[in-house]
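Students often ask why we bother encoding 3D structure as a string. The short answer is that it lets us treat folding as translation between two languages. Here is a chain of 710 residues written in the first language.
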Amino acid sequence: MGLWIAVVVLSMAVVAMLLGDTLTTEGEVTSPTDSKRAEELLLQHFPPSPEALEQATSEVVVVSFAGGAVEQERVQQLTEELREAGATTVVTSADEGQERLDSEDGTATALLIGLGPNEDRLGDVVAAVQQFDEEPGAEAAMTGELTLDEDFNKLSEEDLQKGELFFGAPAALLVLLLVFGTVVAGVVPLVLAILSIVVALALTSIVGQVFELSVFVTNMIFGMGLALGIDYSLFILSRFREERSHGRERLHAIETAGTTASRAVLFSGAAFVLAMIGLELVPNTIMRSLATGAILVGIVSVVAALTLLPAVLSLLGDRIESLRVPYFGRTAAAGAESRFWGRIVRAVMRRPVVSLVTAVALLLAAAVPVLWLETGTAGISTLPDRFESKQGFLLLNREFPGRTTDPVRIVVEGDSASPGVRAAVERLEGELSEREIFGPPTTETSPDGGLIVLTVPVAGDAVSAEAVAAVRDLRSDGIPQAFADSGMQAFVGGATAEDIDYYDVMDAWLPIVFIFVLGLSFILLTIAFRSIVVPATAIAMNLLSVGAAYGLLVLVFVKGIGNELFGFQQVDVVEAWVPLFLFAVLFGLSMDYQVFLLSRIRERYSQTGSNDDAVSFGVGSTARLITGAALIIIAVFAGFARGDLVMFQQMGFGIAVALFIDATIIRSVVVPATMTLLGRWNWYLPSWLSWLPDVHVEGHEQELEPRRAT
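And here it is in the second language, the structure alphabet:
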């Protein structure tokens, strides 16, 4: 206890000093892509000077006047206020050659803003724009890369506070009180989870000194920390209470819980970490950040469950049963819920074929919409209207249709003076003019004459389905046709192209992560239970729940069936990282239940030798705990789903619905039906694998001791 207190205090100091400087809103694909090559060529042929970097613009302020023509005096006043607020560069239509910054009807104008080294003063610049917007007769808003990143960061923090802290944690505590029936027993797992989160944040701060981590890693640590920390403590604490009810002395009950439930927790944690390591393979900084946060909090949660929890139980003893919850305290102690689950399990085992076929058919039906799964990104258009970047985006599209802050940049490598190159560029410009989503391109040649850059505006949201389809078509057809037989190379860069490369990387790595995670999990479960049938069926069941989750995700978010009931937006695509992330997380979390359930079944089977009795006892005795554990994780990730970020809505809904399926249909129907049909074949291990270590994840048989005064 003293060691853990010291670690937590030190962790709080580390988080306060280091965490804020280690996180970034940026994310990139680390493998070679078409858009990265375009960016490299731009830097090579247009090397930016320090002066150019300071004068570069990234934001746009749109000002519209209700009275008619643009009031230049007020625009000049706003310009001065922006400079005082921290803008190092302000380009207006009054500057030479910048007439394009006035709208066609003359009622609006745009100001290009650069912050140079003053990015930390973005809030002051936004405040100046908002103050001008409040003046009568004018409307003003700001958008751009920095403003959008700031708003996404702010919304992420809001969703974290509203979801995990104000919804997930209280809901988890409520479930714990109902499961255990006492306040003390319900609070202990939550406290251990919070301590695990603090330590994991400190470790993340240290890792962040070496590797750049995404700001979303904190959401991951809070969500997975609550889920795993509570689950692991729940399993061990429940076994301790069970042993005490059987008359074991306090320390012996702790020891028994350590040789049974703690072993299951160790293997569950290992399965989860293996699943998250699969995400580390993906060449994307955000995915690796999320995986790193999950791995760290998973390891800390296991260590806390194996070391801190036994110390707490040793100190509390039977005081863990203090402050019983009315009614639920009596039913939890009496175990009435076991009879309920027992009836369900026995009904399934009496008709295993019918039960299995019905359950599998239902899950496959839920998975059918996955055939229409398309991945992409929820861009600025999905942000709530209250954010400055969204207001600026809407005003820009209204006053300057066809303009954008994220144009497509086509980079042509070759001799710009060559007639062949010029002819190819002209053909490409003709191709672009035939596509309504693209505005008139501007062409620029590098000082060394080795690069031609076409900057092409994109109407609307740069990552909308229309923009993505247009750029994909440009890459596959437009550019190859324009540069056929020219011997020149052209690369497409810009925000849209970068996101397309990101989608393609996610899709390409999905089967690789599947094979990696399934393969390692099969090996781990084979060692844990000395059977090749148990891991095979466990993997098949998990794939069923994942497939159903994918299908329901498409049904709700893309097809819009039931989205309004949950308060979700209907969008064109599922976030590119969500299918990959859902698979790894769902597989890791569902393995918690699988290992815990199978360890109790294997323990009973070792004692009685009866497969049916072991299945009935294992499912019936753990169903209440598994359901409670699943409800806790559902509550935690429902907090994400209640947020405003579409990506978190999809992630939270996907995990919540998959775990609900896993804890009900899979554990209560598919598992007992399958294991009943397989009988002794459940524990089949080929003779040529007999050399595998016998780790006894279910623990060794303990001799029951009489209860003694403690």
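Translate back mentally: The chain has three domains: 1-29+182-323, 340-389+501-697, 407-493. Keep this in mind for the problem set.
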